[in-house]
Amino acid sequence: MKIVQEMYARGFQFCPMDLNLVQARHFQIVDGKLMPALSAIDGLGEKAADGVVEAVKDGPFLSKDDFRQRSKVSKSVADLMGDLGILGSIPESNQLSIFDFA
Predict the structure, then answer these.
(1) 3-state per-residue secondary structure call for the chain
(2) What is the pLDDT of residues 13-58, one digit of tens each?
(3) Exposed, middle or buried, 34 (CB in 10 Å: 0-12/13-18/19+)?
(4) 48: Cβ–Cβ under 8 A, 6 or more apart, which residues?
(5) Of 58, 59, 101, 51, nearest to 81 (Cα)?
(6) Does this model's pTM top 0.85?
(7) Dihedral angle computed from the Cα positions of residues 15, 76, 62 and 57, in that order, rounded to the nearest 10 degrees
(8) pLDDT band, very low/low/confident/very high, at 99 (cuts 50, 70, 90)
(9) Does position 73 have pLDDT exceeding 90, yes or no?
(10) What's the confidence (pLDDT) of residue 92?
(11) Separation between Cα atoms, residue 60 and residue 20, nearest integer Å
(12) Residues of the chain with pLDDT > 70: what percent?
């Protein structure tokens, strides 16, 4: 937290992680702001972050289930990424509900 406070004090700004742009191991500059690497997420190691980046290359995810299956991350990490807003508004499951048509 001290490092983040120091960066803000020096004028650095952060942007949220974009699943289509984020890198596995390196921070990057996007629109003049820093985007953290996936490996900065607590509980997401470098190999898992590499898996996510590779899975993104195969196209958009249909659901969080599809994300977990293709990226090989655990449910708890996928849930954390969802809570952080990284997964956007993709549905939880590939299953359709009768209420989806109402």
Answers:
(1) CHHHHHHHHCCCCECCCCCCCCCCCCCEEECCEEECCHHHCCCCCHHHHHHHHHHHHCCCCCCHHHHHHHHCCCHHHHHHHHHCCCCCCCCCCCCCCHHHHC
(2) 999 999 999 999 999 999 999 999 999 898 899 999 999 999 999 9
(3) middle
(4) 71, 72, 73, 77
(5) 51
(6) no
(7) 60
(8) low
(9) yes
(10) 87
(11) 9
(12) 91
Beta bridge mates, 35: 28
Q: CA–CA separation, 19 vs 46, rounded Å?
A: 15
**Cβ-proximal residues to 84 (8 Å cutoff; 6+ apart), any chain:** 16, 17, 41
Cβ–Cβ under 8 Å, residues 27 and 39: no
Tokens of 24: 């596995």
